[in-house]
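Action item from last week, closing it out:
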Amino acid sequence: MLLRQMEYLVALAHEQHFGRAALACHVTQPALSAGIRKLESELRVQIVQRGQRFAGFTAEGTEVLEWAQRMIAEQEQLHSTLSSMRGGLTGVLRIGAIPTALTAASLVTTPLHLRHPLVRFSLESMSSREIATRLNDFDIDIGMTYVDGDPLGRVRVVPLYRERYLFLTPADGEFGARESISWADAATAPLCLLTPVMQNRRILDGHFAEAGAQVEPVVETDTVSAIYSHLESMRLSSVIPHAWLHSFDIPPGARLLTMPQPRRSFHVGLVLAGKDPKSILARTLVDTVGELDIAGELDRGLARRLKPDF
């Protein structure tokens, strides 16, 4: 019964609402509330701050929640270990990825799927800060993000590739006849970029600033697919990481220009929680990726796309 009560607690922390937590646990709200009260009685502490609605956890409750998250994660790891011993690795690998890394996610998920076809994947877009938080809460197994940008806290880092930046622009536009473009000139084009809350955009703004330029995009969005849509429909330009080409390639009517690489470049990589228990699925993904040359594959793909133009 104790483990079930811990599941109630974790669901309440995730949903921040008694009714939604009960739905997530497939029980009635009175049953969930009673289970948490029983846990409080057994531990002799107040866990939940009560009012007309959920008001958060007490200091003791926050400590209990951390134990609950570890206990449930350990239970999941036990099931995964036993399943692999019975007949192959199974389970759901929960991956959180920043939008700019989602375009390269298939380079790490596909090889694992080929080796362990019973493993399923849950791939979710989130910010780098959310990745760090949810890793430590055991809500995801692994993250895919910049590993040398925003502070990630206590995590294990596995670099995958270093970003290179390119300029996508209409082939018949102002810069379409060029082979390369400076950051200062790129800033003068009508641009479509990610929003300033996205880490990729903050990185680009820093590179523009180094060139003495400032950008005011025509369109700002929080998805890569929306950028590509507006490049084609509004004949805009954009500065893109080379990994985007793996999924989106070069839009019709567009031309790819090289750009001077900034003094500081950023790594995209995998991040794992720095505390136990560690996901067996995440460890297996890291082992699989360690045998791959993802950076080389992206570089070769870029070379193939540049060769016809230059």
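Closing note: Strands lie at 91-97, 119-125, 142-146, 155-162, 165-170, 192-194, 219-221, 238-241, 254-258, 267-273.
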